[in-house]
Amino acid sequence: MDASYDKLTRYCLYRERCTYEIKQKMYELKVGEKDQGNFIKQLVEEKYLDDERFIKAYIHTKIYIKKWGKKKIQAELSMKKLDKTFIQKTFLDVDDERYIENLNHLADRKWATLYRKADRERQASLFRYLVGKGYESDLIMDWIKANKGK
Fold first, then answer.
1. Is the pLDDT of residue 20 over 80?
2. What is the DSSP letter of 94?
3. Burial letters 107-132, b for 16+ CB under 10 A, else e
4. Which of 55, 74, 95, 118 has the greatest number of beta carbons closer than 10 A?
């Protein structure tokens, strides 16, 4: 077995990887172009590499653990050159109630830290924070309208 292929399998075992990340790793390992296609094919056949499995794991981790919003996740996955239709399909599996709970939790926590600012400045600061986390502006504005009297 080729030493580079062995390194790639260990790289995949550490956590889920996508094809784009594997290609970057092969570039770092200076794998020849003729071997790259074979390595990717072999990694897929041996189930070390699966872009759909990667997308599911990535979305789950970023929403349920990191509490990121869908826009930020979508941007990150797009940079990895993954299938947009499967990304959208996977977002349909996300529990909307849990997603809103995440937004509410982050907004409540951030809002409490902004008590020294004027109301308008406080809202703008919260808005920027949640947009940076990847949440949709309409959901943020709904939270602000419902909670600005807190």
1. yes
2. S
3. beebbeebeeeeeeebbeebbebbee
4. 55
Residue type, 130: L
Rounded to an integer, what distance in angstroms lies between the CA atom of residue 108 and that of residue 147? 9
CA dihedral sign of residues 10, 16, 20, 24: negative
Kindly state the tokens that stand for 68. Answer: 């990121």
Condensed to tens digits (0 to 9), the pLDDT of residues 66-100 reads 999 999 999 999 999 999 999 999 999 999 999 99
The answer to whether 74 touches 36, Cβ cutoff 8 Å, is no
The pTM (predicted TM-score) of the whole model is 0.89
Rounded-to-integer distance, Cα 25 and Cα 121, Å:
44
Q: Mapping DSSP to helix (H, G, I), strand (E, B) and coil, where does residue 68 land?
A: coil
